[in-house]
Amino acid sequence: MRIENELKLGFKDVMIRPKRSTLKSRSQVSLERTFTFRNSQKIWTGVPIIAANMDTVGTFEMAEALAKDQIITAIHKHYTLSEWSDFLKNQEDSIYDYIALSTGISKADEEKIQQIVHAHPKINFLCIDVANGYSEYFVGFVKKMRQIFPDKTIIAGNVVTGEMVEELILAGADIIKVGIGPGSVCTTRIKTGVGYPQLSAIVECADAAHGLGGHIISDGGCKVPGDVAKAFGGGADFVMLGGMFAGHDESGGEIVEENGRKYRLFYGMSSQTAMEKHSGGVAEYRASEGKTVRVVYKGAVAETVKDILGGVRSTCTYVGASQLRELSKRTTFIRVAEQENQVFGS
Ligand code: 5GP
Questions:
Q1: In angstroms, rounded to a whole number, what is the distance separating the alpha carbons of residues 185 and 292?
Q2: How many Å apart are CA 268 and CA 264, to the nearest integer?
Q3: From the CB of 270, is ligand 1 less than 6 Å away?
Q4: Alpha-carbon span 293 to 343, nearest angstrom
């Protein structure tokens, strides 16, 4: 047994210190980024936010809405080939910049993505997603996918430490998904005691990835636009959101009404609800169960997008970053007592 004594931090443990700035208004801030991915060598331009590959969030309807703002949707893995074909036949080519095809690592998953990519070769992003990205089998699967799809941009995760980020990048992944346990409907930390405070995971994993020319996604734990800004400030290239995109017209999840108020169900991909819905599918998506919650119905996702992008733009003006690219260089975090952040509900 060993104890690491260095304190690790989550979003709620910090705030971003304001700095002198020459920017007059947040409208001067660009959130667009351009990346060249290390292994696929593909160049991508867009707003580096990703809707999570959960069946209540990563829907085709969500992708259509978010693509208008150049935001990516990681489409959940439960759509069939014919549903993919129906969706793609009505889309312009630009949609391929803003969708990712998600998959697990079972034989059935592998056959399915091969079929979908074969039928729709313009799909670029593949998101290989497991609860525990530390298994050798997973690394082997990433290597195999890199061989089969040499020019696709491969997202792989989830992990939370630098050495595993490096291993996955060297195995052929372009973008590493970082986060174990921070998700709003995740119970991993409760059920297993395993996890890593998300902000420290971002800082350490970004450093490891950037050293090799790779990229990272901060996945999970953002509850408010300020958390998204903190994730970018910590060095995340992309930020993946589940709960913040749940409960909209474009989200999945049953609609329920109580006392005249409308709600939508939002659940973890290994929750009982998801298991029942996709029963007969692969065993467990996440190491431990996720939970099911009701979120207040929020209408069209476009309003939420405005709120998030407005918040991040504003963060940029507070620290004098005219482009999102500069945000992490200009970020100084100050550690705060947790109660300080509770005013924001974070
Ligand atoms: P959120 O933005 O809601 O805080 O977090 C979304 C992330 O939670 C997802 O992208 C995924 O990594 C994670 N997640 C989704 N479903 C489950 C689940 O059932 N269990 C666990 N442990 N994590 C989940």
A1: 7
A2: 14
A3: yes
A4: 22
Query: One-letter amino acid identity for 37?
Result: F
Q: Tens digits of per-residue pLDDT, 61-118?
A: 999 999 999 999 999 999 999 999 999 999 999 999 999 999 999 999 999 999 999 9
- Tokens representing 203 are 């800082």
The answer to whether the CB of 58 is under 6 A from ligand 1 is no
Residues 210, 235: Cα–Cα separation, whole Å: 9
Q: Where are the alpha helices (DSSP H) in the chain?
A: 60-67, 81-88, 107-119, 136-148, 162-170, 188-192, 198-211, 225-233, 272-277, 301-319, 327-330, 338-342
Q: Ligand 1 center to residue 44 CA distance, Å?
A: 25
CB proximity list for 275: less than 8 A, separation 6 or greater: none
- Tens of pLDDT, residues 245-277: 999 999 999 999 999 999 999 999 988 888 888
Q: Quick one: pLDDT at residue 275?
A: 84
Q: Does 288 have pLDDT greater than 90?
A: no
Q: 174 CB contacts (<8 Å, ≥6 apart)?
A: 37, 38, 39, 40, 42, 153, 154, 155, 214, 215
d(CA 39, CA 214): 8
Q: What letter would DSSP give residue 30?
A: B
- The residue contributing the CA closest to ligand 1 atom 10 is 52
Which pLDDT score is estimated for 282? 45
Beta bridge partner(s), residue 335: 14
Q: In whole angstroms, what is the distance from residue 256 CA to residue 273 CA? A: 15
Q: How far is the CA of 243 from the centre of ligand 1 (A)?
A: 8
Beta bridge partner(s), residue 90:
none
274-280, Cβ contacts within 8 angstroms, sequence gap of 24 or more: 274/55, 277/55, 278/55, 278/78
pLDDT at residue 345, as a whole number: 45
Token couple for 330: 């200009």
- H or E segment at 10? none
Structural domains for the chain: 18-324 (3.20.20.70)
Residue 225 Cβ inside 6 Å of ligand 1? The answer reads no
